[in-house]
Amino acid sequence: MMPLRLWLRKRRLQRALQGYPIYDPPHKIEERLLSRERAAENFDYFMRVRLDRCAHLIRWVRQQFGYEVSLDEEGLRSLCRWGNKYAGLLLVEDGDGHLPDSYFTYDPPWVGSNAGNNVIFDFGIVLGEIILSSCPLLRWDLDPISKILPKTGKLLKETSGMSFQRPLISGFNNPAYRVIPLHQSYIFAMNMRVNTTSMQGIRKFREGPRFAQRSILDGPINLFRQTMADYPEGDPSGLLREVGPDEFFKLSDEEANRTEAKDD
């Protein structure tokens, strides 16, 4: 059951979503299933439209909801406050009561009841641009790790819902370190849905410890702060510095093997 205030928010969101621009890459298939060449065409499309979509979301949030967002940490806080109220309502169950995985597969298309995927994606773009504005050595990239971590790349390509071959942020001194704001935006929306859009979820959320509540509500802020802490080295554990690149990449790729074996 949805509380009245959330029902009113949902109505407001539905009205605001009318006419929201669709993210329209040339290949609407989960990117992990695309060839490198076709994934690159989707990436090129992303790079062409990302700044316009970033500006549109910022303008949309201000005009429709009154939240001022800028490309810095304070602006991200404002965007998160908006997301705490509305992000969970962007994900809509299908007729069987399940959440479709269309954010990754583009099926069903991002129109009608699934139009919220466009906002979640643009939230990730804004999060990424906020990171880039504070970290000039970083950049949007397409799969920088398969060449250096082939086992990890293979595992990601075989696993659905991991955003493999979607745009991410790289450019750290450690070439294996990357930040995935488009994926984290979806995780944030999912956490908001689970914890803030039903009486049962709200009750369970409020019964949890305060630090856990803040961790959930501030997910994108925590990603930003962690990135700032790890920039530019990308070596939070110090292992790369301790063992050197060759041994580090070998150990990192073997971890993917162990994960795959455990799942089997």
Write the topology of this structure.
Elements: H1 4-17, H2 36-65, H3 73-86, H4 102-105, H5 116-134, E1 139-141, H6 150-157, E2 168-170, H7 181-196, H8 199-207, H9 210-217, H10 219-230, H11 239-243, H12 245-263
Antiparallel strand pairs: 1-2
Helix pairs in contact: 2-5, 3-5, 3-7, 3-10, 5-7, 5-10, 6-12, 7-8
Q: Can you give a write-up of this model?
A:
The chain has a two-stranded antiparallel sheet. It has 264 residues and is mainly alpha-helical. It has helices spanning 4-17, 36-65, 73-86, 102-105, 116-134, 150-157, 181-196, 199-207, 210-217, 219-230, 239-243, 245-263, and strands spanning 139-141, 168-170. It has one domain (4-263). Helix 6 (150-157) packs parallel to helix 12 (245-263). The longest helix has 30 residues, at 36-65. Helices cover 60% and strands 2% of the residues. It contains 12 helices and 2 strands.
- Return the average pLDDT rounded to an integer: 94
> In angstroms, what is the radius of gyration?
19 Å
Outline the biggest β-sheet.
2 strands, antiparallel
Q: How many distinct domains?
A: 1
Q: What low-confidence regions span 5 or more consecutive residues with pLDDT below 50?
A: none
> Quaternary state, please?
single chain
User: What is the overall shape?
Assistant: globular
